[in-house]
């Protein structure tokens, strides 16, 4: 009798975890991924609330204190116009991260929709989407942005409008990788039992896509979005560094790092460029580590 009660109590205590909770537990056990998550969270929070609580504004001029090194008054020093570089670093983080996040969102939306359509319908739909994907992958990225930058300059498009244009263009040119990933996932699911059962029951295509296929692609989409964010930060900072992306006076990590273009600044004015470069390095590294951790957490084979 006691044995039966013990078995029943043990059975009651057993909790069946959903795949999401299992993946979350596996991710939390990865110490490196969690460390990267905390560092990235700190950078994002600092970029959000830093400009609000920090006493200096990013465009306030302090001409008597031009080119001053880090001090108690200006924690990261000032630039050639006396502007506080920590306040500009906070705001630059906002700009670079917003561009990266929203460009990744555009990339994920386009890539997921086209990947699902290509994998599910196949035939001419698949062929057309894959041909467009091949063309975009083979196109030289930098000359396109040089052309677009010249067009924006001739149309007097500067400042914040330029940020939105850069964001949309990055997303529209980088979706083929996500599209191919989702397409391969859909092709693998089409032959599984639940899809054959849905086909036998005569369920509409729209219901099969939104109820059965899309939910099963969430894991790869999340992993792809993290990689897209890292790629977005890298592309934005690279373009801004060569003055094809965000241009001053609006700060971004890329155009702040662009200060390091001469030997004098590299050697004697290191506070101009080093903090921005550190933020770029930490953000891209942390996002990539988190992406690897999420990929391992969602991989049921491991």
Q: How would you summarize this macromolecular structure in one to three sentences?
A:
The protein has about 300 residues and is an all-alpha fold. The chain contains 14 helices and no strands. Its main location: membrane.
Ordered list of secondary-structure elements with their pairings:
Elements: H1 2-13, H2 19-29, H3 31-53, H4 85-121, H5 123-138, H6 141-154, H7 159-173, H8 176-190, H9 193-200, H10 205-213, H11 218-241, H12 253-257, H13 263-268, H14 274-298
Q: Strand portion, in percent?
A: under 5%
Binned, the helix content reads: over 70%
Series of secondary-structure elements, N-terminal to C-terminal: HHHHHHHHHHHHHH
Give the termini separation. 40 Å
**In CATH's first tier, which class applies?**
Mainly Alpha
Q: How many β strands by DSSP? A: 0
CATH T-level topology? MetI-like fold
The tally of domains stands at 1
Class derived from helix and strand content: mainly alpha
Major β-sheet annotation: none
Task: Give the C-alpha Rg.
Answer: 24 Å
Question: What is the CATH architecture term?
Answer: Orthogonal Bundle
Please count the helical segments. Answer: 14
The rough form would be described as elongated
* Global mean pLDDT: 83
According to CATH, the homologous superfamily is MetI-like
| Uncertain stretches | none
